[in-house]
């Protein structure tokens, strides 16, 4: 034993506890005060706007149901596509989700589908197995290539760029019968959890336009949540599918690492970043999740995930349910709101009492470090520096850009500038220690979940905050981001509205390649609690 070393370790431990206590008091005071300020400003000076009720019953149907109706000639594809286009034009002034459209081309695509069905209705090429989304409208995040469309990702330097080919997932959606209508808004370079940029403006929430739609797939979440289209394509590196799905009251899925390709989107992940980032669906009905994941993953990965049409439906009776109401005692994230805690308990109780599944409350202590684990893994991933991406390949001077922003002369948003500054700091040794802790957490979760476990966990600690309020809630994204660096599949599931009339929900997490269990759970909870609440 070394008394001096023990004394030094004791002093360091005491210092860490004192710093933690001071930060807890500061953040515990600042967060409520800033929240009150935002509440006062928006209530007094900004009018709440909601999107109107759905004008057509077609807008409230799932994509699979619409395709079946089109296939049976109960409705034309043109009528369905026109209803979606009319809806987008109606709600766009409220939510500002669409940044580029191909409405006339989409109507022509729909007429071709109708003509083919009228001339040869029994052709097996139009079957549900071959084209599960035949003639159904869909929307696409602007990060993805769509022939002729923009791909600025909110970056001023890219405003003149047009896509010359479709991204892989866009190709697969088209081959399954989807008709793309438009491209939707994102955060600058897809790296913030509010969809706001200097090129296309800010996207509002369909339930309250004063509040965020999330990011970076916020335009997709708002469009699907507003009833403009039943399915959309997003991407997720820190919750960019699941947070918009949560804030807008719909479903979103991040697949197991590497199972869905990113090719054809910008910025694309490189090196280990491909483990964290995946494309995926945002949908209004849970029954569309499985066929969307299947078509995006492709035949080979669908076989690995056991989600091919020939694969048996998972046996719900073999599932084991675990749940957590928060990440622990993290001082960096907001406390989980009581109504969100309640919906997690309600889901767990339903699965226990009504379906007879074993349910256990657990506490994984390392999850309280989620913001640091995500950040460290990202820094070590080999991804191109954000400031270099902002400068179009040349490192942007973010200190100078911050001064320009203060003088209202910058083409960049404050979150982007802040991220460019933040990435310059930190210790590689500390990052490697945190990455090791992340690996330990993954091993703990894999042991807990096994072959048949699902974890119910908050998708976010609060319902949608006001515009720009995320600047005071920097690390709340970690509730979703942690599962990107762990590589685990996670599905955001809506569970109704809170007392403010805003959507809330949870996420279901399973072990690697067990996506089918979280997708099944989405259907089970939708059947019990209603899923998407139409605005």
TrEMBL record:
Superkingdom of origin organism: Eukaryota
Similarity comment: family membership: Belongs to the amidase family.
The protein's name in its UniProt record: Amidase domain-containing protein
Lineage: Eukaryota, Metazoa, Spiralia, Lophotrochozoa, Platyhelminthes
Pfam family, one: Amidase
UniProt-listed PROSITE patterns: AMIDASES (PS00571)
Domain Amidase, first and last residues per copy: 80-518
GO CC list: endomembrane system
């Amino acid at each position: 034993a070394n008394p001096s070393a023990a004394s030094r370790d004791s002093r360091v431990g005491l210092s860490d506890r004192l710093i933690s206590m001071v930060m807890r008091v500061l953040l515990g005071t600042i967060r409520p005060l800033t929240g009150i300020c935002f509440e006062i400003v928006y209530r007094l000076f900004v009018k709440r706007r909601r999107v109107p009720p759905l004008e057509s019953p077609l807008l409230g149907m799932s994509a699979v149901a619409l395709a079946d109706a089109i296939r049976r000639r109960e409705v034309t594809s043109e009528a369905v596509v026109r209803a979606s286009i009319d809806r987008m034009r109606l709600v766009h002034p409220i939510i500002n989700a669409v940044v580029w459209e191909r409405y006339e081309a989409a109507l022509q695509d729909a007429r071709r589908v109708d003509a083919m069905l009228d001339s040869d209705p029994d052709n097996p090429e139009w079957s549900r197995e071959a084209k599960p989304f035949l003639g159904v409208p869909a929307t696409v995040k602007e990060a993805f290539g769509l022939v002729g469309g923009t791909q600025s990702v909110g970056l001023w330097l890219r405003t003149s760029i047009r896509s010359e080919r479709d991204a892989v997932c866009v190709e697969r959606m088209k081959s399954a019968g989807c008709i793309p209508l438009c491209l939707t808004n994102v955060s600058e370079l897809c790296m913030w959890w509010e969809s706001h940029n200097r090129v296309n403006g800010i996207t509002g929430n369909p339930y309250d336009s004063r509040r965020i739609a999330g990011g970076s797939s916020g335009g997709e979440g708002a469009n699907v949540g507003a009833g403009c289209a039943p399915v959309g394509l997003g991407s997720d590196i820190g919750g960019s599918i699941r947070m918009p799905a949560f804030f807008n009251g719909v479903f979103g899925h991040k697949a197991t690492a590497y199972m869905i390709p990113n090719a054809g989107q910008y910025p694309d992940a490189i090196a280990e970043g491909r483990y964290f980032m995946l494309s995926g669906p945002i949908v209004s009905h849970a029954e569309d999740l499985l066929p969307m994941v299947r078509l995006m993953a492709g035949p080979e990965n669908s076989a690995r995930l056991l989600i091919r049409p020939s694969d048996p439906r998972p046996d719900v009776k073999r599932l084991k349910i675990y749940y957590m109401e928060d990440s622990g005692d993290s001082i960096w994230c907001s406390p989980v709101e009581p109504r969100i805690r309640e919906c997690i308990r309600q889901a767990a109780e339903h699965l226990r009492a009504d379906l007879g599944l074993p349910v256990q409350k657990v506490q994984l202590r390392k999850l309280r470090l989620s913001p640091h684990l995500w950040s460290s893994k990202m820094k070590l991933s080999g991804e191109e520096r954000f400031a270099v991406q902002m400068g179009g390949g040349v490192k942007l001077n973010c200190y100078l850009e911050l001064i320009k922003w203060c003088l209202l002369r910058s083409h960049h948003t404050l979150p982007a500038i802040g991220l460019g500054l933040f990435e310059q700091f930190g210790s590689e040794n500390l990052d490697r220690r945190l990455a090791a802790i992340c690996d330990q957490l993954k091993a703990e979760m894999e042991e807990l979940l096994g072959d048949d476990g699902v974890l119910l966990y908050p998708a976010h600690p609060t319902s949608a905050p006001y515009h720009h309020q995320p600047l005071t809630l920097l690390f709340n994204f970690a509730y979703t981001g942690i599962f990107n660096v762990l590589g685990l599949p996670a599905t955001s599931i809506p569970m109704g509205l809170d007392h403010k009339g805003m959507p809330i929900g949870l996420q279901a997490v399973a072990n690697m390649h067990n996506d089918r269990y979280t997708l099944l759970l989405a259907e089970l909870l939708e059947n019990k609690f209603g899923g998407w609440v139409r605005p």
